[in-house]
Amino acid sequence: MGALLTDRLPGGAQPVLQARTGRAAVGGDAFDSGMWPLHREAHLGPGAPWRQDPAVMVLAPLSAEDSAHVPFVIDATALAGPVGRIVVTIDYSPFSKALTFHPGRALPFLGFGVKYETAGALRASVQAGPDQIWHVGAAYVSALGGGCSAPAVSHARPDWQRGFGEMRARLWPDSGRLRLCIRHPQDTGLADGIPAHHLTSLALHDAQGAEIARLDLHEPVEENPSFTFLLPPHLAAEPVTLHAQDTMGNRLSGRVEPST
Amino acid sequence: MTGFRSLTRRSLVAGAAAATALALPRAVAQAQPRGYDLLPQEVAAGLWMITGAPESFARSNGGAIVNIVLLASAEGAIIIDTGSTARMGAEIRAFADQRLGGVARVINTHHHPDHWFGNIAFADRPILALPATGDLCRRSAPDYAASLYALLGPWMAGTTPTPPGQRIESDELVIGGRTLRLLALSGHSAADLVVQDVQTGVLIAGDLLFLDRAPSFPDADVARWLRALDRLAGLETSGVVPGHGPFHRSGAALAQTRQYLELTRDRLDQAAALGLSPVEAMAAGPAPAFRALGANPEEYIRTVAQRWADHERTALPVIGGL
């Protein structure tokens, strides 16, 4: 199970959800099907060399209980060689690119949640190895939809701006995990009368102020998004600062100390 | 029972399906006529129960996953919950009309759709529920209908959500000589009605109690739910109809529901405190004691999706902001 912590819960060593590969990972079609050829050209570059690779594990529930919050974990720690970018695309989303992860000095491992507009695969394209070709894994999620075009739940409350930007986080030095939640409506602009307003970037810095890792974020990331990072032991033993920006120029920041 | 179970048509269809299932495309083979053949059993004097499948909504069960109670009275049947579809409601009504002298009242225990989407078959009769339940039914009907049409397909034909129109604001009802004690609780949902039939002493618990089927948590407040179980534990009963699971005369549903809530709450707290992401908490599966329970692991995975934020909020301190 790679870097997953599933086995820390009783009985979790025999998981009930497993990452799928090949056709099963994209809903039964050929892996190179649907919107993928177009997304590949648009987001990985024209003619970019790629291959599907079981070493890129994408884990998700088989169906979306809540289309506005579909959780994923990407674990590319089994890939050989240095990892560059990880580009996350959603086959049938009105916004095909969810995010780009630059793991930098963090491990190529990311937990996050997205909005789902309709059933389809989410793909993680990992640029890795000496030749830096794209290694692609995927997870198909059955969803009823409405995740992108529904208004953020926070707009139903008159006081939605209270707590806006709040960051909650914790850093576990023993496992290297950093878990972060940010209060943000993540408006797509597709809901009537509500303009787009979403996070554009999130960066992790070490105690000396140097960048550890960075995320470029887009509209499909869920409302009040949460993220899981995996840090090597020396970085997880020190405080980490977090910096985020959104489309309206807001700058959010926080500092998380290692704790057990 | 004449006319209630369409045995002839069902056996014809079953035979036809068996003969052609291999030859027909999957979509055609699945397009069987829609009948449940619900079989009410008299589990106490004048108290009939239809036992739902211990499963989640699926095409294979047509949504017949919930327990239904029909109480005989001098004015006709008192129906407690009506199932997931118009067809389920119609079959329940047919039994009441043919065997119990018609329908006196319908009661919905709470707003989840497996308990009231059959109401359309009783639109001409008084349908009662707690005031909050009526509001929640009206508000959630479009989403529930969209979900169930997607999950159940043709089983949903003709199912127009029909929220309860009358408010229950007393703690006792007397209908056709039958006295019902009513208890307004919450925890499984914002408004959970529990009914005790005084004549037999049987408790009709709605979804505050489950047995041998994993409890569902879409609107759960576990602390409140546990307090509601304390109230139920204080009642004298001769038998229990849980929302899902078999009729029984022991404290089994109470004990199992309590243990499931506590172990699931503790598991998600532990997962959040260890730094797991929600997908990892899902992948780990239900607490080992409940792995084999009906509707698991799907129901547990849904619970993580629905309730994860409650648990993570307490595990993660505020570390910054604007």
UniProtKB/TrEMBL annotation, chain A:
Residues in Ig-like SoxY domain copies:
42-148
Listed A to Z, the keywords are: Plasmid
Q: Name one Pfam family in it.
A: SoxY
Keyword Hydrolase among UniProt keywords: no
Q: What is this protein called?
A: Quinoprotein dehydrogenase-associated SoxYZ-like carrier
User: Which organism is this entry from?
Assistant: Gemmobacter fulvus
* Organism classification: Bacteria, Pseudomonadati, Pseudomonadota, Alphaproteobacteria, Rhodobacterales
From TrEMBL, chain B:
Q: Name one GO biological process term.
A: antibiotic catabolic process
Query: InterPro entries from the entry?
Result: Metallo-B-lactamas, NDM-1-like, RibonucZ/Hydroxyglut_hydro, SoxH-rel_PQQ_1, TAT_signal
Q: Please tell me the species this chain comes from.
A: Gemmobacter fulvus
- The identity of this protein, by name, is Quinoprotein relay system zinc metallohydrolase 1
Q: Which family does the similarity line name? A: Belongs to the metallo-beta-lactamase superfamily. Class-B beta-lactamase family.
Q: Which NCBIfam families did the record assign? A: SoxH_rel_PQQ_1
Domain of life assignment: Bacteria
Q: Which residues form the Metallo-beta-lactamase domain?
A: 65-244
Q: Cite the entry's keywords alphabetically.
A: Plasmid, Signal
Signal peptide: which range, if any?
1-31
